[in-house]
Design a protein that fits this description.
Helices cover 52% and strands 0% of the residues. By secondary structure, the protein is mostly helical.
Length: 82
C-alpha cells in the first residue's frame, strides 16, 4: 500500500518508491501518466526510482550523489533538465 496521492512523493520511503517502480513497470505511457496523476507524481520520478533500483548494489535509497540529486528532484528542489 502506497502513500496517498495528496501528499506527493515527500515522505515516501525507499520501499514505497520500489513498490511504485514495480507496480508501474508494465504500464504503457498513457497508463503511467494516469497513475502519476492519481499519485501526484511525474513519470520522470518513477523512471528515476526504477533506475536507482536497477543499479547493482544501489537500492532505491542509496546515499550516493546521484541518489541525493534524485531525491532533490523528487522533492522539486532541482530542475529535471538543467
Amino acid at each position: 500500500m502506497l502513500p496517498d496521492g495528496d501528499q506527493g512523493p515527500e515522505g515516501w520511503t525507499s520501499r514505497d518508491k520500489f513498490a511504485a517502480a514495480v507496480e508501474t513497470s508494465s504500464l504503457s505511457e498513457s497508463e503511467l501518466g494516469e497513475y502519476c496523476r492519481r499519485r501526484g507524481l511525474y513519470p520522470e520520478q518513477i523512471r528515476a526510482w526504477r533506475l536507482a533500483c536497477e543499479q547493482v548494489g544501489q537500492g532505491c535509497g542509496a546515499p550516493d550523489s546521484r541518489a541525493k540529486r534524485d531525491n532533490a528532484v523528487w522533492r522539486g528542489r532541482y530542475p529535471l533538465h538543467p
